[in-house]
Amino acid sequence: MQALPPDPLPTPDPLPITEPLPAPESPPTPDLTDKPAPPTPPTPPDQHPNPTPVTAAEKNPLRNFLIQLRGVLRGIIGRDFLVGVAALLELLVRSIRGAPPPWFIQVTPQLWVSGQYAGHGWSHLKRRGVTAVVNMRDEYDDQQTGVVP
Fold first, then answer.
1. DSSP letter string over 17-48?
2. Residues of the chain predicted below pLDDT 50
3. Which residues on adjacent β-strands are paired with residue 112?
4. Is residue 69 part of a domain?
5. What is the pLDDT of residue 66?
6. Contact 81/90 with Cβ under 8 angstroms?
């Protein structure tokens, strides 16, 4: 076994500190009495202004279904095949029955997360024990369209 060569740079002995280091000088405080206050920045506009509700004439169920179907087909082709097929099944059940199938949307017994249900789907949801719905899309007024009871 070979011995290691000596360290080429010896470690210096630490110097004892006899006096405390001086405190750093603080910058001079500016005199603010002769300067005007800076202007306050303008408040940003409301990020979510009240949108105009979508009228029933602007809603086209067939067009909406085809847009959703196109997204599902892109998922089948471009991503995971089984996840895309499950999404297609959920879309078809939700379109026919008016409410999504519980096996896809039930997170806990008290919480379900899904897409929008149709007006005739409320009876299916009510039979499953759903008592309240929160619609996160503020451009649709569910009460005006008669979706909520």
1. P-SPPPPPPPPPPP--TTSPPPPPPPPPPPSS
2. 57
3. 106
4. yes
5. 84
6. no
pLDDT single digits (tens) 55-94: 554 567 788 778 888 888 887 777 778 888 888 888 888 8
Question: CA–CA separation, 102 vs 96, rounded Å?
Answer: 14
Q: Give every CB contact of residue 118 below 8 A, 6+ residues apart in sequence.
A: 94, 98, 99, 147
Half-sphere exposure of 23 (CA within 13 A, CB side): 3
Q: Which domain holds residue 137?
A: 57-145
Residue found under tokens 């800076």: 38
Instruction: Answer yes or no: is 121 within a domain.
Output: yes
Instruction: Output helix, strand, coil percentages for the chain, rounded to the nearest 5.
Output: 35, 5, 60
Instruction: Find out whether 41 and 130 touch, Cβ atoms under 8 Å.
Output: no
Question: Cβ(117)–Cβ(132) under 8 Å?
Answer: no
> Is residue 21 one of the residues assigned to a domain?
no
Looking at residue 10, what is its pLDDT?
61
In a domain, 43, yes or no: no
Question: Residue 89's closest CA among 108, 107, 104, 106?
Answer: 104
Rounded Cα–Cα distance for residues 123 and 121 (Å) = 5
- Number of structural domains the chain divides into: 1
